[in-house]
UniProtKB/TrEMBL annotation:
Domain of life: Bacteria
Residue ranges constituting the Peptidase M20 dimerisation domain according to the UniProt record: 188-340
GO cellular component: cytosol
Record's protein name: Acetylornithine deacetylase/succinyl-diaminopimelate desuccinylase-like protein
Matching SUPFAM superfamilies: Zn-dependent exopeptidases
GO biological process: lysine biosynthetic process via diaminopimelate; proteolysis
Keywords, ordered alphabetically: Hydrolase, Metal-binding, Protease
PANTHER family: BETA-ALA-HIS DIPEPTIDASE, DI- AND TRIPEPTIDASE DUG2-RELATED
Molecular function via GO: metal ion binding; peptidase activity; succinyl-diaminopimelate desuccinylase activity
Lineage of source species: Bacteria, Pseudomonadati, Pseudomonadota, Alphaproteobacteria, Hyphomicrobiales
Amino acid sequence: MRVPSDLLAAATKDLADLVSIPSVSTRGDGLGACADAVEALLQDAGFRTEQHPGDVGPFVVGETGEGPFTLIIYNHYDVQPEEPVDLWTDPPFVLSERDGRLYGRGAADDKGEFVSRLAGWRLFRSKHPEPLPYKLIWIVEGEEEIGSPSLTRFLKTRFPDTKADLCWWEYGEVDRTGRPIILMGFKGVLAVELDCRTARADLHSSLGAIFDNPLWRLASAVSSLRDASGRILIEGFYDDIVAPEPYSRELTATAPFPLEDLQAETGGHRLLNGVDATTFYGHLNFEPCLNVNGFHGGFGGEGAKTVLPCSGVVKLDFRLAPGQHPVRIAQLLRAHLDEIGFGDIELRVLDAEVLGVRSDPSHVAVGIGAALLEKSFGRPAIIQPSSAASGLAHPFVHAFGATLFGAGLTHHGAMLHSLDENIIVEQFENMIGFSSDFFAALAENVGKQSPEAPND
């Protein structure tokens, strides 16, 4: 559907207003102001609203409708830091338009997603003002970019007995050719830091003839964790993984986009052993992985300095499959280091909150959504069993019993967490149209015994 020009202009202004608030949760900046702005938008759209404090930023809740079906929409208003500012083409907290794209920190992640859905809601209500025949709970938080430290606790406190049918997740993807991707799951995450100290202070490098080097120890420890194919070598690491369902396996048997497209979008070129054009998609969906995020220590300035460092630090993250618990993986990592002679290396757990989840892709609402995404974007939707990334979706899936549904406008060149973050204007409009249609289709179908996907 074509979105009315005045509604599209209003949505763009809403996005500009939100982008102008530097709601960086890492620094605790602008979170209250942005929560107030989000609440005002939800109130204006007819929702009953509340704010609740979080550890860092407030939670905003909007509710409306009644009925046997419950839809939860989850978004976040916090954003990543904008540095390095001087590499942005335009100021990061000013929404700018160039060549059919809208640029700004949060334009995609996640303010653009929130605004597109809210504009779709307004369009839907302009055509369907009658009482909503299902319950809609909209939760917008301000701590997602720092791991949502208080989300699980908030949900337990505010919604202790809530059961939901569907959770429309904070984002979905659009591939390089414009095909929408529905995400049905996410990987868990464990982030850790390894610290090694071997002396009180840096020493003359000649003493390397008798004293060990903390960077060597860390490098040796890290190299013991993974082989060249990416398979993790920690004993027991794979024991608890929940195998993908047959339909999920079927959905990944043939990649919906070529490996070359992903390489072109990311600039990534060196593949792990055993990963090729036929296997990469299954790895992205189902395989856990281990990453070295940073290796720090010693001298990094210009020229030479012959020094034996006294300490070093390595930061790692694991992306985990459903069934793997981050705390358990941290315990296995500690046991592995101790077993092979690295008991002196300190292990600090930085993030162990996010569990992997994967929902049933045969859920009727997914079929409805897929048909409507094809209508709005003009390309058949891809149903992807799991994102390669992580999100704190398990409280919605495990506690609420909701099926996960990740549909959105984050295209593969959106530069999330990077400079010149952006969305494509045409896809912004498509997502508004889809959102309106999706709200309407749920209203038409949730009261039926056997809901059917709508016709184009």
